[in-house]
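Q: I have two molecules that I believe assemble together. Could you output structure tokens for the complex as a whole instead of separate predictions?
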Amino acid sequence: MRDSVFMAREGFARLARRIAEIEGRPAFAEADTLSADALPAGPPAHPAPARHLLSPRRGGAVLPLGVEALDRRLGGGLRRNALHEIRASETRDVSAASGFATALLARLSACDDRPILIIVEEEAAREGGRPYGPGIGQFGLDPGRLIVVATRRAQESLWVFEEGLRCTGLTAVLCEIRGRPRALDLTASRRLALRARENGVMGLLLRQAGGAEPGAAATRWRVAPRPAATTDDFTEGIGRPVWQLDLERNRGGPSGRIDLEWDHGTLRFTVAPGDAAAIPVPDAALSRDRPDLASAPRPIMAYQRTG
Amino acid sequence: MAASDPAAHLRDQDIGTELAARTQDVIRPPLVVTAKIKSALRIVALDEAAASLGLEPGQPLADARAMAPALDAVDEDAAADAALLAAIADWAERYTPLVALDAGGLMLDVTGCAHLFGGEDALVADLEARLADQGFAARAAIASTPGAAAAAARFTTRRSVAADATPALLAPLPLAALRLEVETVSALDRVGLKRIGQVMTAPRAPLAARFGNGLLRRLDQALGSLEEPIGPRRPVAALIAERRFAEPIARAEDIAASILSLAASLAASLEARGEGARGYELALFRVDGAVRRIAVGASRPIRAPDLVLDLFREKFAGLAEEIDAGFGFDMVRLSVPVSAADAPAQVDLAGDATGESDLGRLIDRIGARLGAERVSRIAAGDSHVPERAEMRGGGAGTATTPWRDSTGDGTIDRPLRLFARPEPVEAMAAVPDGPPLRFRWRRALYQIVRAEGPERIAPEWWRDGEELSRDYFRVEDPAGHRFWLYREGLYGRETSAPRWYLHGVFG
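A: Yes, here they are, computed for all two components at once.
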């Protein structure tokens, strides 16, 4: 009897995994929400296949951010084989959004040694500045790993983006799009997400002055800068970068909001010191797989500082 | 050129009148083309009707009008003539890749090509017939030297001259057939030397003393005892494969199929040489004589036919204007202008290719569609001036200079994004060298709550146009935006009113 119950549970878990696979979601996130708080937190371990030991470094299937509460929400981290959208609602916030994207790529490149493709539209570079090698290097990402493509129009950017996501020789593709070009509709977004899923190349869509539009991205983050928290230490310069990250959309779990600080020396995110008091997070059940529409911040839980 | 090398000379009879006749809506013969020579309008080219009236090149237009009042005269358009001749030269590359412009005509080196067309006579006949189809009246001749070919085409009706018949051919011709200077010809004429045969038998030393080396050089070149190189218009590719079609092709799939098969035959030659191509050039010869050339480059040596086709597909997709097939292409040529040694692809221990070839293919495709200069790598520049501290290297396939240790406890003192041109801002700062207190950028006012600096960067005096020192400040506003501002010029020493610029933003 005991045996059959175990078997049934096993069968159910397999089915859940299969469904998650079809939907392109990490299975453990499903389990996490199903069993609510009963299960121990933390992402299940992803044993790397043995051939990864022999072949060049490729990393796992997810990119953990290293902040436990956030990783749990994402189901272990950002999925590598997916499209992620990072947007800055104003042009002046582009630097912050670009900083967060660079930090993600820095963490990613630490466990994967293939190059990264960066697509910058001419107009985006004019309005928000072009990626600057020395600054990127200080941020923790080796500029020698970058291949930069300058495009003239959004159509060109999207074409290169899609081609890049099909290329197994790349770790990730970062594409900067300015405004709301007509070419970037839901269909285009779905195509990109599909390409990322097929080949396991991480797609980052950095939208300058872009709105919260529907898209096929697995996660969407709105990034705004925060005043630096660590300032008294002179070697830290004007302070470590801090961003307010608004996880507006999360296909694998609830959305939320958090302030993160980037340590470029150790390539680690930490919860910003001033943020530990109360982090407004919308109700998990309400916003699951939906854009975060709740504007009124409601304090529900607090993140522990783990750094 | 060795004496046995055949050279075909093609002379376009009066290319100027041809062009004028083509561009005039209503053609009323006789037609002459005039240009201002020696302060008079003179005939430079004329059609058959005009020639039959006794008009000749060099005649003043006024005289010609007196002889034939119903004369139609148009101005010479040298640029259009040259363009038309260049177009014909492009077309003539269907016979040989070595085509040179030669004093109003074309010189083709058809060494080793004639058998492809069924012999020398057949080649000349084919060339004349095709030009006649296009509406050109042309004369062509093949001889063993360029000089003899030019003489035969311009002064005889012979189509092909054997190597041992050259002296017999040249002997009765006027000296002008040797392509001499006009002054030399008239000087020779004054001493009674009118035919080439007279010069051939005359003692050489006095001729050289009196008329210079040019005369004997030209004579020796025409006879083949002195080599005369021709100057091809375009460099000859290392490898060429071509295909002719009895029935012209026009569909994109047919062109793609012929690219594939030509690339396959080139791949075999490249493989035999242990090389790969760093670029390909496709030439499409249209039935009506127009030639379209399309070139693609590769970041690494390639030879696989499907890769080559891929590159051309991207190139076609990225072309501004469609390829006009007209009535079809009757010849397709694929050539490899540059080749390089090709190393076998690196495969790791687990047998999993590193994806490098996939990446190279992606870079080539992007380069083919958007232009190779749009794909670059960021390399470290040897300068402390921010805009020169990084270099955008073309050729994404090449390795770049290593960057200094990117991770560490160093401060972040360089911005994540840099503006190509520093943007001027209005800033308030304490003189002489205090940090800015607030500034206005793109019409928005930013209060500064934290500032670090100055970091003084002196101009590189060894460069021209370097002007003033810059004091860089890293600043933060209450919302957390971080900027990189600099003051241009040292207060009091270099300028009395320093200006402020925003050069970059921090992440």
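A: One point stands out. The two ends of chain B are 67 Å apart (CA to CA).
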